[in-house]
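Q: what sequence does this backbone want?
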């Protein structure tokens, strides 16, 4: 690490050429040598295999991928805890290898797990402690803590010891801690992992409210989280970005049909010409295929594959009404991020998660990596 270049670069200022970008990543890779006992003589693991992306200021950017995809490795490189094997990353124009100190000043980073707060101190005291560690003066700490405790809805509990906090409250305090020194960029590694659903919702609301004042890069293996929070998502699998775009772009590109599933009411009866109904349903141009199967309960389920569910539903209802067939339920299935992952990788997301679980002795459990190990890994 060329620490001597840091000061020089700092006086020159950021080296990036796109001031509206908080992060610019180009062809970033990282390999590890698997440990064999005390030695690093084992096989090479290519954790990140050449990824590129930009994060515009004031937005939430998500790295979505199954366990072992390379998410944590990526953000450790961005936050200078790991040296890239090759490629470049600029944070606010500063290079993670050449301008390490300046990069760290731009960043507030949250890694998964419970560590990093003092249980015996109360919420406000924790912020004071970390503010002093960052070199802030007490007046600035007091002002910033008041703002942040309000932002993370912990004003009322600020004088209670952190040991009495729920996991969700701790995570919110953690996020306040990452924002203390007014970083330009906040990096959150799986911010809701291990939280109960209600606490996860609160943390997501908090994250959603960080923009546009802050810029957020988060990793997650939760499709729903990525969907609701992120302006843009990079889907990462086995160290590569396999698809990237806004949630709606990714879903629209997923190579799956939209489906309308109509549960038919009472048995349409003997007079019903099933084949003729299917033919009529298939006639409109936006409907590609119709099938009738036994439904979950007694009824029949009509599955209509179509390019446009709104127009398709209109047509289908008209045909069924004319044929005098009653309807018990309607379900519309639009492509999801799961479908986007499947289209991009040929595997189900769940399957990808369990692949790693089977394979993975080196799997990084949330919060398992200590910062000392990280330093040693650099
Ligand atoms: N320090 C390390 N030594 C060896 N292999 C590692 C190390 N850290 C991560 N890996 C491997 O790199 C791959 C990506 O890991 P990681 O970045 O933690 O994935 P994610 O955060 O997406 O779950 C995995 O196969 C993991 O086992
Ligand atoms: Mg991880």
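A:
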């Amino acid at each position: 690490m060329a620490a001597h270049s840091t000061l020089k670069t700092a006086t020159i200022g950021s080296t990036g050429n796109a001031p509206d970008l908080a992060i610019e990543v180009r062809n970033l890779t990282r390999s590890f040598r698997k440990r064999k006992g005390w030695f690093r003589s084992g096989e090479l693991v290519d954790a990140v295999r050449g990824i590129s992306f930009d994060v515009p200021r004031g937005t939430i950017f998500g790295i979505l991928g199954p366990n072992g995809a390379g998410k944590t490795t990526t953000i450790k490189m961005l936050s200078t805890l790991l040296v890239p094997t090759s490629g470049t990353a600029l944070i606010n124009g500063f290079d993670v290898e050449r301008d390490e100190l300046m990069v760290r000043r731009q960043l507030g980073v949250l890694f998964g797990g419970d560590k990093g707060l003092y249980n015996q101190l109360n919420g406000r005291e924790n912020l004071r402690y970390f503010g002093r560690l960052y070199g802030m003066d007490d007046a600035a700490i007091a002002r910033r803590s008041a703002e942040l405790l309000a932002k993370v809805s912990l004003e009322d509990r600020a004088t209670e010891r952190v040991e009495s906090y729920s996991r969700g409250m701790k995570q919110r305090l953690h996020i306040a801690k990452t924002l203390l020194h007014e970083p330009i960029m906040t990096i959150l590694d799986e911010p809701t992992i291990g939280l109960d659903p209600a606490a996860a919702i609160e943390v997501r609301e908090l994250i959603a409210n960080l923009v546009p004042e802050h810029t957020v890069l988060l990793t997650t293996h939760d499709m729903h989280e990525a969907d609701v929070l992120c302006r843009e998502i990079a889907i990462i699998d086995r160290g590569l970005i396999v698809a990237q775009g806004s949630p709606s772009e990714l879903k629209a590109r997923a190579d799956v049909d939209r489906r309308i599933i109509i549960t038919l009411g009472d048995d349409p009866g003997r007079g019903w010409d099933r084949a003729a109904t299917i033919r009529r349903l298939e006639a409109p141009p936006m409907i590609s295929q119709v099938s009738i199967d036994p439904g979950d309960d007694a009824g029949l389920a009509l599955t209509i594959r179509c390019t446009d569910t709104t127009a398709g539903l209109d047509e289908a209802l008209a045909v069924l009404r004319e044929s005098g067939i009653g309807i018990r339920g309607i379900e519309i299935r639009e492509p999801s991020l799961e479908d986007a992952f499947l289209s991009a990788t040929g595997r189900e997301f769940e399957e990808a998660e369990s692949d790693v679980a089977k394979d993975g002795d080196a799997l990084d459990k949330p919060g398992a990596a200590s910062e000392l190990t990280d330093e040693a890994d650099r």
